[in-house]
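Figure S4 source data
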Amino acid sequence: RRGGAPRRGDRTTGAGIISQLAGGRASGWKGEHPPLIAARGHGGAMEVLKHYKLSLTHGSSLKIMQLTDMHTWWPLDGSPIEWTCGAGNTVSLNTPSSPYSTHAEPELIQKIIARVKPDLVILTGDIIDARAYPSDSPPCCWKPCFRAVIAPLVAAGIPWTYCQGNHDHEDSCPYPRDSLLDIFSGEFPLCVSEGATSFNHTLTVGPGDAPSGGDSLRLWIFDTGGNNPDPAIMFDTVSDEAIASFERLSRGDSALDTSGVACGLAFHHIPMAEMAYLPPLVGHEGLFGAALHSGKAPWWVAPLAPLVRLLGLHRVVGASKRPSGLFAALEAAPGVAAAFCGHDHYNDFVVRRGDLFMCYGRVTSHSPPSDW
């Protein structure tokens, strides 16, 4: 371990998965809910930003690329490291024989954007890993790392924006959570959310100076918070204030003007509980299988795995156990077509509940999970 190297992976492991199985569908959207708790450090109403004009490279089509869960950390120079993970296994990073790297994410981004040629990139959380930084690091220690991540986008002239993950900041890290708002300050070029003072914000993007004739999209960026100290909750979620302001802005007399907007898309890090137990329209569910493979599940789960899969109870997600109301708000909002998240490294699928598509981004981390 070097420089307080992070414990890889999220707490959507063993106990979290089994609690979903043992509770049947008590995953925050049906049945009895745990008591509501105050959201920690990520409140605030939805902030309305100005329209951002994009240069489209695909005719009249607007192509968005989602990147998530890079967990980028030092050293970016690629020097070799021997790292002991949370499960007690020692792995090598940045060696010719190892698949693990602390600096491969920018290289991967460069390859993907050359192939996809996106008009806009959305970074959906855990882009950096706060657990990598020793407690005596300066408060701005995260900035060079984040700058290295977006460097390929800036070099290619591709605008981007970002929503907060549960590991971009940790309670024990040397910088305050609000310091990450500097991402929107203008210090980092080509951010479409420049000027935002809240992680919860909305804006339109399109080829013109303003939305016209359905040529634009409305983006809704939500902050799902961090890790919750209560194991019965596991993760924070979108604050009540953000949900209430989204409802005001998306429907009713105070709704934002939708003329010229083709549809709305929501982006957040931690998945909604309503994604669980649905058959994927495309992609695969891998979280349950990863728990079995790693030995994180209790001994009695493995013999029952075929039955669990037959009943569809293997389709678990790493959602907060605190019901946020985000799904109900998104589904009720006219014109919101889909929501995109990250967080669960082993899930990579699209599901649909009601009129809302809910989609995972594919993990891009080259760092080993600590306890899987």
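Figure S5 source data
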Amino acid sequence: VATAALTSSTLPAAPVTSASFTATALASASLSAATLSSATVTASAFAPTALAAAAQSTSSLPASAVPAATVPTATVPTAALSAASVASAAPPTAAPQPPLAEGEVAAAAVASESSPASPYELRCGEGAGSSQCYLPLDAASFSVRGREYFADGKKAPSARGASELLAVELFRAKSPVEAVGSRRSAPSHTLQQRTASPLASVFVVSLVIPAGSGGVLQLVLYFGVLAAAASGPAHQLLRAFTAPDTSDAWRNGRFKIIPGVEAGPWIVRKAVGNKSTPAILGKQLKQTFSSSPGVFEVAVDCNSSPAAGRIVSMVKSQARHLAVDLAFLIEPQSASELAERVLGCVRISHVSLANGLIPAYCGTEGEDE
């Protein structure tokens, strides 16, 4: 790249100092990027590499490093630069990274999903500060009832979540889409293809939020329940919760949310809480339950309580400024059901609810509308 930069313009035969070399190389690199023919290399591919190489030369070349005899006095046309000489300027190989620990591989695979698989899916973000996306969370960031909770009242960080968050949908609809996770085009049918961890089933949480003018926003979370988590008290609670003969009254008394605002205005953080105020959803909000082979769904009407409606309205108005964390659990209510464990969790990161950014749901014939 340094050779390409130097030969792209006529240089004097006098010795070249480090400072003058850098300035010339930078100018030449910019010129080369703009004038190279598309058959050789595109400007966007060449310019960053050439500029980086030229900048690096400031510290690596002393004043005597380039003798006068080595600097050509004739002009070499830029178009004569061969593709091979540009291609040889490959960036240095990154240092090898340590392997992920067992249990982190699947989470990393989920985090690398940067593009949605359907028009309704939010993309998976790549780190704190990402916007218009969701992020998987570590279940240990939520405190839950410990093994001796009914004796000592102590909470502890949750063990690894019983599921992986593998897809999130967000769309507008004229009315709530029922059994949204069981429709033919739902992500629930492709979750196993998105993770290397064997899944036992799919657990769907559908949050129905009023959108004004009689319509709704629907936030749908798809959790793949891990086959490896199919043991212990938390799994037994999940099996009881999803059993076909379990009453809705029992489910309404158990399904719990732990909300928190990681980033956002103080007034919203105060209203929502900071992962310190869990709530049994069925005590205040209307919930419906549905199932299909391998899929169980909880739909929560977030406007069915005046108090909840006020908080939801506040969150909606500030949504693009917020990073909201949510954990879902099935609450243990006896000592034999402890310790409590997060079923699934998510961060919704700086999502603008503007009409142009949230797709409108359009069900196909034979599905939901």
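The two ends are 59 Å apart (CA to CA). Confidence is low (pLDDT under 50) at residues 1-115.
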